[in-house]
Amino acid sequence: xxxxxxxxxxxxxxxxxxxxxxxxxxxxxxxxxxxxxxxxxxxxxxxxxxxxxxxxxxxxxxxxxxxxxxxxxxxxxxxxxxxxxxxxxxxxxxxxxxxxxxxxxxxxxxxxxxxxxxxxxxxxxxxxxxxxx
Length: 133
What we know:
Radius of gyration: 17 Å
Distance between the termini: 42 Å
Number of helices: 2
Structural class: mainly beta
Strand order of the largest sheet: 1-4-3-2-9-5-6-7-8
């Protein structure tokens, strides 16, 4: 996901095993970039699980979170030309990327498809395979 105002810039999808940094693009929109190319917006899909590090004091206090948190990438409802890219903390609070400080780093823990594969495997296990503990 990349907010509408990042459509002005070159972009690419996120990959595993890469660290991203939140930065403010010339349009004013906060977006993720990779270290090797800070001019290209990295689009992280909705429902991807991330580990954020370097969350600023103001966000920590406002949303009762720590400096490092595991979050889920999400998209909030909004009108036309409104920022929509956000993350959801484990405490249920959703925060727009625009509210974070530049320099927050993110690492993808799992993409939705990774989680779906695990769910599918669990769903199709035979009852005979289950063991009471």
